[in-house]
Amino acid sequence: MSSTPVQTDRPDRPDPSVRARFAPSPTGALHIGGARTALFNWLLARHTGGKLVLRIEDTDRERSTPENVEQILDALRWLELDWDEGPILQTARAERHHEVLQALLEVGRAYRSSATAEDVKAYKQLHGAERGFRGEAQDEGAIRLRVPETGETVVHDAIRGDTSFAHVHLDDPVIARADGSVLYNFAVAIDDLDAQITHVVRGEDHLSNTPKQVLVLEAVRAAGFDGAERPLPTYAHLPLLHGPDGKKLSKRHGAASVQELRDSGFLPAAVRNYLALLGWGAGDDQTVLSTEELIERFTLQRVSRNPARFDETKLKWLNGVHIRALSVDELAGLLGDFLDGAGEHPGVREEERFAGAVAISQEKIHTLADFWPLAGFIFTGPRDDPAAREKWLGEEGRAVLADVRAALAATAGFGQADVREALEGLLERLELKPRAVYQPVRVAISGTTISPGIFESVALLGREETLRRIDAALDATR
After folding, report:
1. Strands 85-89 and 51-56, sheet pairing
2. Cβ atoms within 10 Å, residue 162
3. CB 447 within 8 A of CB 469
4. pLDDT of 23 above 80
5. Vertex 215, ends 183 and 155: CA angle to 5°?
6. Active site residues
7. C-alpha count within 13 angstroms, C-beta hemisphere, residue 268
8. pLDDT of 276-318, one tens digit each?
9. Element holding 161 (H helix, E strand)
């Protein structure tokens, strides 16, 4: 594992017995909800001093690919969420799954059944739609777990409280195909048992799976397997994620995956900060939290039952706060890596003015991707924006720009203070509003109406380059 875990020392509440797990299915990129689940498990493990197990649940034969596994690992590395054990491929445990399956068949806690969907439908028509399907043991067919006829399975949830599932309403679930390959709920239960998982923290959409997995564990316990006598894991089902409109989170709400957040220029620390606040509260109104503070404060007891809203606008704001907390050197390094990774402006970090451009842009950008549209003109020259030229470099604008050129050419120095003094003096002499002077200058040096501060931009370009761009603008608009 390449990332370095955040070290925290809390002798007052260590619990090294805690074993959490993140168990994604490699059927695509790691989406926002999955990233939050990974983060909450990571925070739980780091808060308690326990362990985080990474398991890849690759039982979907068609959609689980090595490329998708690598996508998940890549996303976790970028988020800087390290793990202590794994990654463990669920398919690599087929022999163990088969061993337990055979034992359950032998003791009668599971049985083979060739019942089809039509057979199940007919059973419910006969016994009532609310009655769980019960099959007869046969010599061949899929393998079903035998659910007790009476009683209930109670899921004790650290977030939602207790939820009861009456056995009379539960079908005998299929736990393996006719060829013996096991299905999700069986494999998950056995893998959690063998890994000695103490906490299962996952999305609310898994709540309906939990009684089936508990019933598997109860059956294994009855079959006398070593370790099955251990207490059931603590279950915690995280609230759903919605978009700002209150509807289920989807691509229409913005970035859908961790890689899209990375490619949009978000910082891992800001993403961790924001995702942690989706359904969890720090106990006060503090929004900006370092990773160390998140680890220090995290508990499952503070996770809400209510759906959380993912708002990319709020994430951008928070990302901007994290950007402004960086030193210029740190930000320059991140921006250099980002631009190199994008492959569009390789080597720009070696430019003489790069650090200066970063410094004058830091207060204005919200993501790393904002930098080049704002300050790229410093390196490539003015952009071509006909609307900006038409609005600000008409007859009046050119007259002002000529006066600006004269004022800048005459300054003794060319630092930010010198540029400010020259332009503010011109404002006073011409009795114009700031926009009437600064926007023609901005369009002349950048080609657009958007740039870092005008004094800072002009000073960074230097006298020679600034006057050259002003002259070019004047010539082009004659």
Report:
1. parallel
2. 8
3. no
4. yes
5. 115
6. 251
7. 14
8. 999 998 777 789 999 999 999 999 999 999 999 999 999 999 9
9. strand 161-166
